[in-house]
Protein backbone atom coordinates (compact mmCIF):
# COMPACT_ATOMS: atom_id res chain seq x y z
CA UNK A 1 0.00 0.00 0.00
CA UNK A 2 1.81 3.01 -1.24
CA UNK A 3 -1.49 4.65 -0.57
CA UNK A 4 0.18 7.44 1.28
CA UNK A 5 2.31 8.54 -1.59
CA UNK A 6 -0.34 10.43 -3.42
CA UNK A 7 -0.45 12.91 -0.62
CA UNK A 8 3.22 13.40 -0.25
CA UNK A 9 4.14 15.14 -3.35
CA UNK A 10 2.39 18.38 -3.86
CA UNK A 11 4.19 19.07 -7.09
CA UNK A 12 1.85 16.57 -8.68
CA UNK A 13 4.24 15.23 -11.27
CA UNK A 14 5.47 12.39 -9.22
CA UNK A 15 3.15 11.26 -6.56
CA UNK A 16 2.97 7.55 -6.65
CA UNK A 17 1.06 4.50 -6.22
CA UNK A 18 2.22 1.00 -6.06
CA UNK A 19 4.05 -1.15 -3.70
CA UNK A 20 5.27 -4.48 -4.88
CA UNK A 21 6.62 -7.82 -3.97
CA UNK A 22 8.83 -10.33 -5.59
CA UNK A 23 8.01 -13.87 -6.49
CA UNK A 24 11.75 -14.14 -6.47
CA UNK A 25 14.35 -16.85 -6.51
CA UNK A 26 13.90 -19.82 -4.20
CA UNK A 27 14.92 -18.96 -0.68
CA UNK A 28 17.36 -20.84 1.44
CA UNK A 29 15.33 -22.73 4.00
CA UNK A 30 17.39 -21.33 6.77
CA UNK A 31 14.28 -20.24 8.56
CA UNK A 32 11.39 -22.49 9.41
CA UNK A 33 8.35 -21.50 7.43
CA UNK A 34 4.98 -21.40 9.16
CA UNK A 35 2.16 -23.84 8.39
CA UNK A 36 3.25 -24.51 4.85
CA UNK A 37 0.64 -26.42 2.96
CA UNK A 38 2.26 -27.17 -0.35
CA UNK A 39 5.22 -25.90 -2.25
CA UNK A 40 4.34 -24.01 -5.39
CA UNK A 41 6.80 -24.03 -8.22
CA UNK A 42 7.70 -20.63 -9.59
CA UNK A 43 6.50 -19.82 -13.03
CA UNK A 44 9.70 -19.43 -15.00
CA UNK A 45 8.03 -16.76 -17.13
CA UNK A 46 8.07 -14.50 -14.13
CA UNK A 47 11.83 -14.49 -14.00
CA UNK A 48 12.30 -11.28 -15.91
CA UNK A 49 9.78 -9.29 -13.88
CA UNK A 50 11.15 -10.78 -10.68
CA UNK A 51 14.72 -9.94 -11.57
CA UNK A 52 13.77 -6.36 -12.42
CA UNK A 53 11.86 -6.00 -9.17
CA UNK A 54 14.63 -7.41 -7.01
CA UNK A 55 17.19 -5.10 -8.58
CA UNK A 56 15.84 -2.05 -6.72
CA UNK A 57 17.81 0.27 -8.99
CA UNK A 58 18.21 4.02 -8.50
CA UNK A 59 18.40 3.86 -4.69
CA UNK A 60 21.45 3.78 -2.40
CA UNK A 61 23.10 0.49 -1.40
CA UNK A 62 21.75 0.49 2.19
CA UNK A 63 18.24 1.22 0.88
CA UNK A 64 18.51 -1.54 -1.75
CA UNK A 65 19.98 -4.04 0.72
CA UNK A 66 17.18 -3.41 3.16
CA UNK A 67 14.49 -3.98 0.55
CA UNK A 68 16.15 -7.15 -0.71
CA UNK A 69 16.50 -8.47 2.85
CA UNK A 70 12.86 -7.76 3.70
CA UNK A 71 11.61 -9.44 0.54
CA UNK A 72 13.88 -12.44 1.14
CA UNK A 73 12.73 -12.76 4.74
CA UNK A 74 9.09 -12.84 3.73
CA UNK A 75 9.82 -15.34 0.98
CA UNK A 76 11.87 -17.60 3.24
CA UNK A 77 9.09 -17.68 5.75
CA UNK A 78 5.93 -17.72 3.64
CA UNK A 79 6.97 -18.97 0.25
CA UNK A 80 5.17 -22.32 0.47
CA UNK A 81 1.93 -20.45 1.13
CA UNK A 82 2.23 -18.09 -1.82
CA UNK A 83 1.17 -18.55 -5.41
CA UNK A 84 3.51 -17.23 -8.10
CA UNK A 85 3.01 -13.71 -9.37
CA UNK A 86 0.51 -13.92 -12.22
CA UNK A 87 0.54 -10.31 -13.32
CA UNK A 88 1.13 -9.72 -17.04
CA UNK A 89 4.73 -8.77 -17.87
CA UNK A 90 3.66 -5.24 -18.86
CA UNK A 91 2.18 -4.74 -15.40
CA UNK A 92 5.11 -6.30 -13.60
CA UNK A 93 7.25 -3.68 -15.29
CA UNK A 94 5.98 -0.52 -16.92
CA UNK A 95 7.20 2.89 -18.03
CA UNK A 96 5.68 6.20 -19.03
CA UNK A 97 5.73 7.39 -22.60
CA UNK A 98 8.52 9.91 -22.17
CA UNK A 99 10.74 7.33 -20.52
CA UNK A 100 11.20 9.46 -17.39
CA UNK A 101 9.29 7.05 -15.18
CA UNK A 102 9.54 3.30 -14.66
CA UNK A 103 8.10 0.94 -12.12
CA UNK A 104 7.74 -2.68 -11.06
CA UNK A 105 4.83 -4.38 -9.40
CA UNK A 106 4.72 -7.86 -7.90
CA UNK A 107 1.73 -9.41 -6.24
CA UNK A 108 1.56 -12.95 -4.89
CA UNK A 109 -1.70 -14.32 -3.53
CA UNK A 110 -1.84 -16.78 -0.69
CA UNK A 111 -3.36 -20.16 -1.49
CA UNK A 112 -5.73 -21.99 0.81
CA UNK A 113 -5.48 -22.62 3.69
CA UNK A 114 -2.94 -19.86 4.11
CA UNK A 115 -3.94 -16.78 6.12
CA UNK A 116 -2.27 -14.59 3.50
CA UNK A 117 -4.60 -12.69 1.19
CA UNK A 118 -1.75 -11.29 -0.89
CA UNK A 119 1.69 -9.78 -0.64
CA UNK A 120 2.55 -6.81 -2.75
CA UNK A 121 5.81 -5.05 -3.48
CA UNK A 122 7.03 -2.39 -5.87
CA UNK A 123 9.55 0.18 -6.73
CA UNK A 124 8.86 3.34 -8.66
CA UNK A 125 11.37 5.70 -10.20
CA UNK A 126 10.38 9.02 -11.68
CA UNK A 127 12.56 11.88 -12.82
CA UNK A 128 11.38 15.17 -11.37
CA UNK A 129 10.88 18.23 -13.57
CA UNK A 130 12.82 20.19 -10.97
CA UNK A 131 15.83 17.89 -11.37
CA UNK A 132 16.59 14.88 -9.23
CA UNK A 133 14.23 11.96 -8.94
CA UNK A 134 11.52 10.42 -6.85
CA UNK A 135 12.13 6.85 -5.72
CA UNK A 136 9.61 4.79 -3.87
CA UNK A 137 10.08 1.25 -2.64
CA UNK A 138 7.49 -0.67 -0.71
CA UNK A 139 6.40 -3.99 0.66
CA UNK A 140 2.98 -4.68 2.11
CA UNK A 141 0.96 -7.70 3.11
CA UNK A 142 -2.76 -8.27 3.55
CA UNK A 143 -4.18 -11.14 5.56
CA UNK A 144 -7.55 -12.77 4.81
CA UNK A 145 -10.56 -13.09 7.13
CA UNK A 146 -9.47 -16.47 8.51
CA UNK A 147 -7.51 -14.30 10.96
CA UNK A 148 -8.12 -10.83 12.37
CA UNK A 149 -4.39 -10.11 12.86
CA UNK A 150 -2.94 -6.85 11.52
CA UNK A 151 -1.55 -6.33 8.01
CA UNK A 152 2.01 -5.18 7.24
CA UNK A 153 3.05 -1.94 5.58
CA UNK A 154 6.52 -0.63 4.76
CA UNK A 155 7.35 2.20 2.42
CA UNK A 156 10.30 4.47 1.72
CA UNK A 157 9.70 7.56 -0.36
CA UNK A 158 12.82 9.43 -1.36
CA UNK A 159 12.31 12.73 -3.18
CA UNK A 160 15.97 13.78 -2.98
CA UNK A 161 19.20 12.27 -1.61
CA UNK A 162 18.61 14.19 1.63
CA UNK A 163 14.86 13.75 2.07
CA UNK A 164 13.10 10.50 2.92
CA UNK A 165 9.65 9.58 4.20
CA UNK A 166 9.31 6.32 6.09
CA UNK A 167 6.02 4.55 6.72
CA UNK A 168 6.19 1.39 8.82
CA UNK A 169 3.14 -0.09 10.47
CA UNK A 170 1.00 -3.08 11.28
CA UNK A 171 -2.37 -1.53 10.37
CA UNK A 172 -5.10 -2.97 12.60
CA UNK A 173 -8.10 -4.78 11.13
CA UNK A 174 -10.49 -3.92 13.94
CA UNK A 175 -11.66 -0.85 15.83
CA UNK A 176 -9.05 -0.69 18.60
CA UNK A 177 -11.34 1.25 20.92
CA UNK A 178 -13.78 -1.66 20.89
CA UNK A 179 -11.02 -4.29 21.10
CA UNK A 180 -8.73 -3.69 24.10
CA UNK A 181 -7.42 -7.30 24.01
CA UNK A 182 -6.42 -6.86 20.39
CA UNK A 183 -4.63 -3.61 21.22
CA UNK A 184 -2.76 -5.35 24.03
CA UNK A 185 -1.85 -8.46 22.02
CA UNK A 186 -0.55 -6.82 18.87
CA UNK A 187 0.61 -3.40 19.98
CA UNK A 188 1.35 -3.33 23.71
CA UNK A 189 2.74 -6.83 24.35
CA UNK A 190 4.90 -6.66 21.21
CA UNK A 191 6.38 -3.35 22.40
CA UNK A 192 6.04 -1.97 18.91
CA UNK A 193 6.11 1.59 20.19
CA UNK A 194 9.74 1.40 21.30
CA UNK A 195 10.82 1.49 17.66
CA UNK A 196 8.85 4.68 17.04
CA UNK A 197 10.41 6.17 20.16
CA UNK A 198 13.91 5.18 19.07
CA UNK A 199 13.52 6.86 15.70
CA UNK A 200 11.99 9.96 17.25
CA UNK A 201 15.28 10.61 19.07
CA UNK A 202 17.32 10.93 15.87
CA UNK A 203 17.91 14.66 15.27
CA UNK A 204 17.04 14.51 11.56
CA UNK A 205 13.69 12.81 12.16
CA UNK A 206 10.46 14.83 12.03
CA UNK A 207 6.88 13.61 12.25
CA UNK A 208 5.17 13.07 8.94
CA UNK A 209 1.42 13.61 8.87
CA UNK A 210 -0.43 12.31 5.83
CA UNK A 211 -2.78 14.83 4.27
CA UNK A 212 -5.36 12.06 3.98
CA UNK A 213 -7.51 11.77 7.12
CA UNK A 214 -8.48 8.31 5.92
CA UNK A 215 -4.86 7.17 5.97
CA UNK A 216 -4.40 8.63 9.43
CA UNK A 217 -7.43 6.61 10.56
CA UNK A 218 -6.11 3.45 8.98
CA UNK A 219 -2.76 3.19 10.71
CA UNK A 220 -2.13 1.88 14.22
CA UNK A 221 -1.22 3.95 17.29
CA UNK A 222 2.36 2.67 16.97
CA UNK A 223 2.70 3.58 13.30
CA UNK A 224 6.03 5.07 12.30
CA UNK A 225 5.31 7.90 9.88
CA UNK A 226 8.33 10.18 9.74
CA UNK A 227 10.24 12.47 7.44
CA UNK A 228 14.03 12.40 7.58
CA UNK A 229 15.87 15.50 6.39
CA UNK A 230 19.67 15.26 6.27
CA UNK A 231 20.62 18.29 4.21
CA UNK A 232 22.38 19.92 7.16
CA UNK A 233 24.13 16.73 8.25
CA UNK A 234 26.63 16.26 5.46
CA UNK A 235 27.02 13.66 2.75
CA UNK A 236 26.34 10.06 3.55
CA UNK A 237 24.17 10.76 6.58
CA UNK A 238 20.99 9.45 4.91
CA UNK A 239 22.75 6.16 4.21
CA UNK A 240 23.85 6.02 7.84
CA UNK A 241 20.29 6.57 9.05
CA UNK A 242 18.94 3.88 6.74
CA UNK A 243 21.65 1.36 7.59
CA UNK A 244 21.95 2.09 11.29
CA UNK A 245 18.35 2.79 12.26
CA UNK A 246 15.68 2.08 9.66
CA UNK A 247 17.17 -1.27 8.60
CA UNK A 248 17.16 -2.96 12.04
CA UNK A 249 13.80 -1.50 13.00
CA UNK A 250 12.07 -2.53 9.77
CA UNK A 251 13.45 -6.05 10.14
CA UNK A 252 12.35 -6.33 13.74
CA UNK A 253 8.82 -5.12 12.95
CA UNK A 254 8.61 -7.56 10.03
CA UNK A 255 9.65 -10.41 12.36
CA UNK A 256 6.88 -9.42 14.76
CA UNK A 257 4.39 -9.42 11.93
CA UNK A 258 5.56 -12.82 10.68
CA UNK A 259 5.54 -14.41 14.15
CA UNK A 260 2.42 -12.87 15.63
CA UNK A 261 0.25 -12.06 12.62
CA UNK A 262 1.03 -14.05 9.48
CA UNK A 263 1.86 -17.23 11.41
CA UNK A 264 -0.11 -16.66 14.60
CA UNK A 265 -3.36 -18.54 15.13
CA UNK A 266 -6.50 -16.60 15.93
CA UNK A 267 -10.04 -17.77 16.48
CA UNK A 268 -12.46 -16.00 14.19
CA UNK A 269 -16.19 -16.75 14.50
CA UNK A 270 -18.77 -16.39 11.74
CA UNK A 271 -19.99 -12.91 12.74
CA UNK A 272 -16.44 -11.71 13.15
CA UNK A 273 -15.55 -13.10 9.76
CA UNK A 274 -18.36 -11.17 8.13
CA UNK A 275 -17.15 -8.01 9.85
CA UNK A 276 -13.58 -8.57 8.65
CA UNK A 277 -14.73 -9.25 5.09
CA UNK A 278 -16.63 -5.97 5.07
CA UNK A 279 -13.86 -3.91 6.69
CA UNK A 280 -11.04 -5.47 4.64
CA UNK A 281 -13.06 -4.91 1.48
CA UNK A 282 -13.60 -1.24 2.30
CA UNK A 283 -9.93 -0.75 3.16
CA UNK A 284 -8.76 -2.27 -0.09
CA UNK A 285 -11.23 -0.49 -2.36
CA UNK A 286 -10.57 2.83 -0.61
CA UNK A 287 -6.83 2.25 -0.93
CA UNK A 288 -7.16 1.87 -4.68
CA UNK A 289 -9.40 4.90 -4.97
CA UNK A 290 -7.26 7.28 -2.91
CA UNK A 291 -3.90 6.10 -4.07
CA UNK A 292 -3.59 4.52 -7.44
CA UNK A 293 -6.73 5.89 -9.05
CA UNK A 294 -5.56 9.46 -8.80
CA UNK A 295 -1.79 9.21 -9.05
CA UNK A 296 -1.12 6.56 -11.68
CA UNK A 297 -2.67 8.45 -14.59
CA UNK A 298 -0.60 11.54 -13.78
CA UNK A 299 2.60 9.56 -13.49
CA UNK A 300 2.30 7.08 -16.30
CA UNK A 301 -0.47 8.41 -18.55
CA UNK A 302 -4.05 7.11 -18.81
CA UNK A 303 -3.32 4.06 -20.92
CA UNK A 304 -0.61 2.54 -18.74
CA UNK A 305 -2.53 3.54 -15.62
CA UNK A 306 -5.67 1.74 -16.77
CA UNK A 307 -3.71 -1.38 -17.61
CA UNK A 308 -1.98 -1.50 -14.22
CA UNK A 309 -5.08 -0.50 -12.26
CA UNK A 310 -7.14 -3.15 -14.01
CA UNK A 311 -4.71 -5.84 -12.86
CA UNK A 312 -4.41 -4.50 -9.34
CA UNK A 313 -8.19 -4.21 -8.86
CA UNK A 314 -8.48 -7.98 -9.15
CA UNK A 315 -6.62 -8.27 -5.87
CA UNK A 316 -7.97 -5.23 -4.10
CA UNK A 317 -11.62 -5.87 -4.78
CA UNK A 318 -11.61 -9.66 -4.60
CA UNK B 1 -11.64 13.65 30.11
CA UNK B 2 -8.30 14.51 31.53
CA UNK B 3 -7.57 10.95 30.68
CA UNK B 4 -4.35 11.86 29.04
CA UNK B 5 -2.86 13.51 32.02
CA UNK B 6 -1.85 10.40 33.81
CA UNK B 7 0.65 9.70 31.09
CA UNK B 8 2.12 13.12 30.93
CA UNK B 9 3.88 13.46 34.14
CA UNK B 10 6.52 10.93 34.71
CA UNK B 11 7.52 12.36 38.05
CA UNK B 12 4.46 10.67 39.46
CA UNK B 13 3.62 13.20 42.12
CA UNK B 14 1.34 15.23 40.00
CA UNK B 15 -0.23 13.36 37.21
CA UNK B 16 -3.88 14.16 37.15
CA UNK B 17 -7.31 13.16 36.49
CA UNK B 18 -10.37 15.18 36.22
CA UNK B 19 -11.83 17.59 33.85
CA UNK B 20 -14.81 19.58 34.94
CA UNK B 21 -17.62 21.81 33.99
CA UNK B 22 -19.54 24.55 35.61
CA UNK B 23 -23.21 24.63 36.38
CA UNK B 24 -22.55 28.33 36.47
CA UNK B 25 -24.52 31.54 36.51
CA UNK B 26 -27.33 32.00 34.03
CA UNK B 27 -26.02 32.94 30.63
CA UNK B 28 -27.12 35.89 28.59
CA UNK B 29 -29.31 34.52 25.83
CA UNK B 30 -27.26 36.26 23.25
CA UNK B 31 -26.94 33.02 21.34
CA UNK B 32 -29.84 30.88 20.26
CA UNK B 33 -29.79 27.62 22.15
CA UNK B 34 -30.46 24.41 20.26
CA UNK B 35 -33.60 22.33 20.78
CA UNK B 36 -34.18 23.41 24.34
CA UNK B 37 -36.81 21.31 25.99
CA UNK B 38 -37.29 22.95 29.33
CA UNK B 39 -35.41 25.43 31.40
CA UNK B 40 -33.95 23.96 34.56
CA UNK B 41 -33.51 26.27 37.49
CA UNK B 42 -30.06 26.17 39.03
CA UNK B 43 -29.77 24.68 42.45
CA UNK B 44 -28.66 27.59 44.60
CA UNK B 45 -26.68 25.18 46.77
CA UNK B 46 -24.28 24.70 43.92
CA UNK B 47 -23.23 28.29 43.98
CA UNK B 48 -20.14 27.81 46.04
CA UNK B 49 -18.76 24.94 43.97
CA UNK B 50 -19.65 26.78 40.79
CA UNK B 51 -17.95 29.95 41.91
CA UNK B 52 -14.80 28.07 42.86
CA UNK B 53 -14.78 26.27 39.53
CA UNK B 54 -15.30 29.38 37.44
CA UNK B 55 -12.50 31.19 39.25
CA UNK B 56 -9.81 29.16 37.43
CA UNK B 57 -7.18 30.36 39.89
CA UNK B 58 -3.44 29.77 39.58
CA UNK B 59 -3.35 30.16 35.77
CA UNK B 60 -2.51 33.20 33.66
CA UNK B 61 -5.20 35.68 32.61
CA UNK B 62 -5.37 34.52 28.96
CA UNK B 63 -5.64 30.90 30.12
CA UNK B 64 -8.38 31.78 32.65
CA UNK B 65 -10.28 33.96 30.15
CA UNK B 66 -10.25 31.19 27.59
CA UNK B 67 -11.64 28.63 30.05
CA UNK B 68 -14.34 31.00 31.26
CA UNK B 69 -15.34 31.84 27.69
CA UNK B 70 -15.55 28.17 26.67
CA UNK B 71 -17.65 27.28 29.69
CA UNK B 72 -19.94 30.28 29.09
CA UNK B 73 -20.34 29.41 25.42
CA UNK B 74 -21.41 25.88 26.23
CA UNK B 75 -23.78 27.11 28.90
CA UNK B 76 -25.31 29.79 26.69
CA UNK B 77 -25.98 27.24 24.04
CA UNK B 78 -26.94 24.13 25.97
CA UNK B 79 -28.07 25.33 29.36
CA UNK B 80 -31.74 24.49 28.88
CA UNK B 81 -30.75 20.87 28.15
CA UNK B 82 -28.56 20.44 31.21
CA UNK B 83 -29.47 19.40 34.70
CA UNK B 84 -27.74 21.21 37.57
CA UNK B 85 -24.54 19.76 38.95
CA UNK B 86 -25.56 17.30 41.67
CA UNK B 87 -22.10 16.33 42.90
CA UNK B 88 -21.58 16.60 46.68
CA UNK B 89 -19.77 19.79 47.73
CA UNK B 90 -16.69 17.78 48.79
CA UNK B 91 -16.42 16.37 45.28
CA UNK B 92 -17.07 19.68 43.58
CA UNK B 93 -14.07 21.00 45.48
CA UNK B 94 -11.43 18.86 47.16
CA UNK B 95 -7.88 19.10 48.47
CA UNK B 96 -5.14 16.75 49.51
CA UNK B 97 -4.17 16.35 53.13
CA UNK B 98 -1.00 18.40 52.93
CA UNK B 99 -2.84 21.29 51.30
CA UNK B 100 -0.48 21.28 48.30
CA UNK B 101 -3.18 20.15 45.89
CA UNK B 102 -6.71 21.39 45.26
CA UNK B 103 -9.23 20.73 42.53
CA UNK B 104 -12.75 21.35 41.33
CA UNK B 105 -15.07 19.06 39.45
CA UNK B 106 -18.37 19.91 37.81
CA UNK B 107 -20.56 17.51 35.93
CA UNK B 108 -23.94 18.32 34.44
CA UNK B 109 -26.03 15.59 32.86
CA UNK B 110 -28.32 16.22 29.92
CA UNK B 111 -32.00 15.61 30.51
CA UNK B 112 -34.25 13.90 28.01
CA UNK B 113 -34.64 14.43 25.11
CA UNK B 114 -31.28 16.15 24.95
CA UNK B 115 -28.48 14.46 23.02
CA UNK B 116 -26.07 15.39 25.81
CA UNK B 117 -24.96 12.55 28.07
CA UNK B 118 -22.99 14.84 30.34
CA UNK B 119 -20.62 17.77 30.32
CA UNK B 120 -17.65 17.74 32.59
CA UNK B 121 -15.14 20.38 33.57
CA UNK B 122 -12.40 20.79 36.12
CA UNK B 123 -9.30 22.52 37.21
CA UNK B 124 -6.54 20.95 39.24
CA UNK B 125 -3.69 22.68 41.00
CA UNK B 126 -0.82 20.80 42.53
CA UNK B 127 2.45 22.12 43.91
CA UNK B 128 5.38 20.17 42.53
CA UNK B 129 8.09 18.80 44.81
CA UNK B 130 10.62 20.26 42.40
CA UNK B 131 9.17 23.75 42.86
CA UNK B 132 6.58 25.36 40.65
CA UNK B 133 3.17 23.85 40.12
CA UNK B 134 1.08 21.72 37.84
CA UNK B 135 -2.14 23.29 36.61
CA UNK B 136 -4.69 21.46 34.54
CA UNK B 137 -7.92 22.89 33.19
CA UNK B 138 -10.34 20.97 31.06
CA UNK B 139 -13.75 20.84 29.51
CA UNK B 140 -15.22 17.78 27.86
CA UNK B 141 -18.60 16.66 26.64
CA UNK B 142 -20.10 13.25 25.98
CA UNK B 143 -23.15 12.71 23.79
CA UNK B 144 -25.63 9.87 24.30
CA UNK B 145 -26.60 7.13 21.82
CA UNK B 146 -29.51 9.13 20.36
CA UNK B 147 -26.77 10.55 18.11
CA UNK B 148 -23.52 9.11 16.82
CA UNK B 149 -21.82 12.53 16.55
CA UNK B 150 -18.36 13.01 18.09
CA UNK B 151 -17.68 14.08 21.67
CA UNK B 152 -15.69 17.17 22.67
CA UNK B 153 -12.38 17.25 24.52
CA UNK B 154 -10.27 20.22 25.56
CA UNK B 155 -7.44 20.19 28.06
CA UNK B 156 -4.53 22.43 28.99
CA UNK B 157 -1.80 20.96 31.15
CA UNK B 158 0.77 23.44 32.39
CA UNK B 159 3.70 22.02 34.31
CA UNK B 160 5.69 25.28 34.35
CA UNK B 161 5.14 28.83 33.08
CA UNK B 162 7.01 27.90 29.90
CA UNK B 163 5.63 24.41 29.24
CA UNK B 164 2.09 23.58 28.17
CA UNK B 165 0.37 20.55 26.70
CA UNK B 166 -2.75 21.15 24.66
CA UNK B 167 -5.31 18.47 23.79
CA UNK B 168 -8.19 19.54 21.57
CA UNK B 169 -10.33 17.06 19.72
CA UNK B 170 -13.73 15.81 18.69
CA UNK B 171 -13.15 12.11 19.48
CA UNK B 172 -15.15 9.95 17.06
CA UNK B 173 -17.76 7.48 18.29
CA UNK B 174 -17.41 5.06 15.39
CA UNK B 175 -14.65 3.19 13.57
CA UNK B 176 -13.67 5.77 10.95
CA UNK B 177 -12.29 3.14 8.59
CA UNK B 178 -15.74 1.56 8.37
CA UNK B 179 -17.53 4.93 8.20
CA UNK B 180 -16.20 7.09 5.35
CA UNK B 181 -19.34 9.29 5.37
CA UNK B 182 -18.85 10.01 9.05
CA UNK B 183 -15.21 10.91 8.44
CA UNK B 184 -16.25 13.29 5.67
CA UNK B 185 -19.11 14.91 7.60
CA UNK B 186 -17.36 15.60 10.87
CA UNK B 187 -13.68 15.87 9.96
CA UNK B 188 -13.24 16.70 6.27
CA UNK B 189 -16.22 19.00 5.57
CA UNK B 190 -15.65 20.90 8.83
CA UNK B 191 -12.03 21.51 7.84
CA UNK B 192 -10.96 20.68 11.36
CA UNK B 193 -7.44 19.87 10.23
CA UNK B 194 -6.62 23.44 9.30
CA UNK B 195 -6.45 24.34 13.00
CA UNK B 196 -3.92 21.58 13.63
CA UNK B 197 -1.90 22.81 10.66
CA UNK B 198 -2.00 26.41 11.90
CA UNK B 199 -0.66 25.45 15.31
CA UNK B 200 2.01 23.23 13.80
CA UNK B 201 3.59 26.29 12.18
CA UNK B 202 4.27 28.06 15.49
CA UNK B 203 7.98 27.64 16.27
CA UNK B 204 7.42 26.68 19.93
CA UNK B 205 4.94 23.92 19.08
CA UNK B 206 6.03 20.25 19.11
CA UNK B 207 3.94 17.14 18.67
CA UNK B 208 2.82 15.49 21.87
CA UNK B 209 2.33 11.72 21.75
CA UNK B 210 0.44 10.17 24.65
CA UNK B 211 2.19 7.18 26.18
CA UNK B 212 -1.18 5.40 26.22
CA UNK B 213 -1.87 3.53 22.98
CA UNK B 214 -5.51 3.46 23.99
CA UNK B 215 -5.67 7.25 24.08
CA UNK B 216 -3.95 7.44 20.71
CA UNK B 217 -6.64 5.09 19.35
CA UNK B 218 -9.41 7.14 20.86
CA UNK B 219 -8.69 10.51 19.29
CA UNK B 220 -9.60 11.60 15.78
CA UNK B 221 -7.23 12.07 12.83
CA UNK B 222 -7.54 15.83 13.28
CA UNK B 223 -6.76 15.78 17.01
CA UNK B 224 -4.51 18.56 18.24
CA UNK B 225 -2.09 17.04 20.72
CA UNK B 226 0.88 19.34 21.11
CA UNK B 227 3.46 20.49 23.59
CA UNK B 228 4.39 24.17 23.66
CA UNK B 229 7.80 25.09 25.05
CA UNK B 230 8.54 28.80 25.35
CA UNK B 231 11.62 28.83 27.58
CA UNK B 232 13.78 30.24 24.80
CA UNK B 233 11.22 32.80 23.66
CA UNK B 234 11.28 35.23 26.54
CA UNK B 235 8.74 36.19 29.18
CA UNK B 236 5.13 36.51 28.20
CA UNK B 237 5.40 34.34 25.11
CA UNK B 238 3.22 31.57 26.56
CA UNK B 239 0.46 34.08 27.23
CA UNK B 240 0.80 35.33 23.64
CA UNK B 241 0.48 31.80 22.28
CA UNK B 242 -2.58 31.11 24.42
CA UNK B 243 -4.27 34.41 23.60
CA UNK B 244 -3.30 34.66 19.95
CA UNK B 245 -3.51 31.05 18.83
CA UNK B 246 -5.02 28.55 21.26
CA UNK B 247 -7.92 30.82 22.25
CA UNK B 248 -9.37 31.40 18.77
CA UNK B 249 -8.79 27.80 17.69
CA UNK B 250 -10.40 26.27 20.78
CA UNK B 251 -13.41 28.55 20.34
CA UNK B 252 -13.77 27.70 16.68
CA UNK B 253 -13.56 23.96 17.34
CA UNK B 254 -16.12 24.27 20.14
CA UNK B 255 -18.48 26.11 17.77
CA UNK B 256 -18.11 23.29 15.26
CA UNK B 257 -18.92 20.78 17.97
CA UNK B 258 -21.95 22.75 19.13
CA UNK B 259 -23.30 23.29 15.60
CA UNK B 260 -22.56 19.92 14.03
CA UNK B 261 -22.50 17.50 16.95
CA UNK B 262 -24.38 18.66 20.05
CA UNK B 263 -27.12 20.37 18.04
CA UNK B 264 -26.92 18.45 14.77
CA UNK B 265 -29.56 15.85 13.99
CA UNK B 266 -28.48 12.33 13.10
CA UNK B 267 -30.51 9.24 12.34
CA UNK B 268 -29.56 6.35 14.57
CA UNK B 269 -31.25 2.97 14.04
CA UNK B 270 -31.71 0.29 16.68
CA UNK B 271 -28.62 -1.77 15.75
CA UNK B 272 -26.52 1.35 15.57
CA UNK B 273 -27.80 2.45 18.96
CA UNK B 274 -26.75 -0.84 20.52
CA UNK B 275 -23.29 -0.44 18.98
CA UNK B 276 -22.97 3.10 20.33
CA UNK B 277 -24.09 2.03 23.80
CA UNK B 278 -21.43 -0.66 23.85
CA UNK B 279 -18.66 1.53 22.46
CA UNK B 280 -19.52 4.57 24.59
CA UNK B 281 -19.67 2.35 27.66
CA UNK B 282 -16.24 0.90 26.95
CA UNK B 283 -14.76 4.34 26.30
CA UNK B 284 -16.09 5.75 29.54
CA UNK B 285 -15.13 2.81 31.77
CA UNK B 286 -11.67 2.65 30.19
CA UNK B 287 -11.26 6.38 30.66
CA UNK B 288 -11.92 6.04 34.37
CA UNK B 289 -9.60 3.06 34.68
CA UNK B 290 -6.64 4.58 32.84
CA UNK B 291 -6.96 8.10 34.09
CA UNK B 292 -8.58 8.69 37.42
CA UNK B 293 -8.15 5.26 38.94
CA UNK B 294 -4.40 5.45 38.89
CA UNK B 295 -3.66 9.14 39.31
CA UNK B 296 -6.19 10.38 41.86
CA UNK B 297 -4.90 8.29 44.76
CA UNK B 298 -1.36 9.50 44.19
CA UNK B 299 -2.42 13.12 43.98
CA UNK B 300 -5.03 13.37 46.67
CA UNK B 301 -4.59 10.27 48.82
CA UNK B 302 -6.78 7.13 48.85
CA UNK B 303 -9.65 8.56 50.86
CA UNK B 304 -10.30 11.65 48.76
CA UNK B 305 -9.66 9.65 45.59
CA UNK B 306 -12.27 7.06 46.52
CA UNK B 307 -14.83 9.74 47.31
CA UNK B 308 -14.30 11.56 44.02
CA UNK B 309 -14.04 8.38 41.94
CA UNK B 310 -17.24 7.02 43.46
CA UNK B 311 -19.13 10.10 42.34
CA UNK B 312 -17.58 10.18 38.90
CA UNK B 313 -18.26 6.49 38.25
CA UNK B 314 -21.97 7.18 38.36
CA UNK B 315 -21.61 9.18 35.17
CA UNK B 316 -18.93 7.14 33.46
CA UNK B 317 -20.55 3.76 33.92
CA UNK B 318 -24.20 4.79 33.63
From TrEMBL, chains A, B:
Q: Does the keyword Transit peptide apply?
A: yes
- Which reaction does this chain catalyze? primary fluorescent chlorophyll catabolite + 2 oxidized [2Fe-2S]-[ferredoxin] = red chlorophyll catabolite + 2 reduced [2Fe-2S]-[ferredoxin] + 3 H(+)
Tell me the keywords, alphabetical order: Chlorophyll catabolism, Chloroplast, Oxidoreductase, Plastid, Transit peptide
Q: Cellular component terms, GO, for this chain's entry?
A: chloroplast
- Going by the record, the broad EC class of this enzyme is oxidoreductase
A Pfam match: RCC_reductase
Q: Name one GO biological process term.
A: chlorophyll catabolic process
Q: Which GO terms describe its molecular function?
A: red chlorophyll catabolite reductase activity
* Principal subcellular localization: plastid
Compartments reported by the entry: Plastid, Chloroplast
Q: What's the superkingdom here? A: Eukaryota
Associated pathway = Porphyrin-containing compound metabolism; chlorophyll degradation
Could you say which EC number(s) this protein's record lists?
A: 1.3.7.12
By its UniProt entry, which PANTHER family does this protein fall under? RED CHLOROPHYLL CATABOLITE REDUCTASE, CHLOROPLASTIC (PTHR34685)
Q: What is this protein called?
A: red chlorophyll catabolite reductase
Q: What taxonomic ancestry is recorded? A: Eukaryota, Viridiplantae, Streptophyta, Embryophyta, Tracheophyta
